């Protein structure tokens, strides 16, 4: 099989892996080297199907020995198969980089023969890029559960970021849908990468030219909607992963029904895109807004409100916390106000040193006053009283169509409400007003 055909097959197989973001690492090329990486992210390109990409996102191979029921590359699925030779892929990456199509490489793989053999192929590819072509651009590589720690150490010394996909939100779902994988095989490499990354600063201090181990950290991905876990279970797992393994990111991938199986949702079921969006919003609250998972969702409310983002939903259900006086409130308190983000909270603290703030000043700072006005006190706002029922608050920021959908949910229950119809109607109203 020629290289263009392999590229077509293996880039198409890689598009379902969403764990791909800005680099998070800054480095310049050494004398004689090629490329570099910046903290702010990578340049953008567009794939044939219109997706915006910044890295060459490809699999080493899609010939898999595992039979995970949710995966398009599973052993029993009848699809075209291909495997790159390490030098083929290294040369392809360099040619794309020289043409300014990409700024880095995102390399994952199906399990070819066994985990060790797969990681060896990836390591050889990255070794050619780093040592022969002297490529200093950003590389994100996938660790393969079940491979040896020695191979993962070599991988971490060549890649900027490593990720180990946890796949399913619970051990029971993992056993059901991915019988060839185990919880221990996934968490083991995560723990090794965490410990090895913690040792690396001491090596860099002791030895001037010591190599850096995965300087952009590690991340993971889990599939949402293929198994019956609640949003609260997923969010609690996410919080635990951040705390235990010091992950940079947890990525959520809405399950795309592609293969029929009795253990999976029907092929004609729509992917839970709105649920994925709510999980990313909640993830942001965990990482930047000092929220705990139990504050966002509890036993009585295990799933997200489809009409309110998690922060706004928390505020509406905790009127005892408000109003907040923006001219005196602490930074942590400002972060709890809908319409006030991390940047605008810092700007408020800086601006109020020289003047008392009013609504006009808050609007200039970047606060979404349309929402924040119900929760704050400032110079010209003694607080518009928060309506006693959430839908009354919603009516001030939602269109009539969105309000009708909310009342329909209240009357008939969530099961009879098509959330994707709601998301389509809310293009200019709810989506813009209630996202932060």
Description:
The protein folds into 2 domains: 294 residues, Aldolase class I (TIM Barrel); 124 residues, no CATH class. The radius of gyration is 24 Å and the shape is globular. Helix 3 runs parallel beside helix 4, helix 4 crosses helix 6 and helix 7 packs parallel to helix 8. A 6-stranded parallel sheet has the order 3-4-5-6-7-8. The protein has a two-stranded antiparallel ribbon with strand order 1-2. The chain has a two-stranded parallel ribbon with strand order 9-10. Strand 1 and strand 2 form a beta hairpin. The C terminus is likely disordered. The protein has 18 helices and 10 strands. By secondary structure, it is α/β, with parallel strands linked by helices.
Instruction: Report how far the terminal alpha carbons are from each other.
Output: 48 Å
Number of strands: 10
Rounded radius of gyration (Å) = 24 Å
Task: Report the structural category.
Answer: alpha/beta
Percent in helix: 40-55%
CATH superfamily (homologous) name of the largest domain: Aldolase class I
Report the order of strands and helices. HEEEHEHEHEHHEHEHHHEHHHHEHHHH
- Strand-residue proportion: 5-15%
> Mind describing the biggest β-sheet?
6 strands, parallel
CATH architecture assignment of the largest domain: Alpha-Beta Barrel
Integer tally of domains = 2
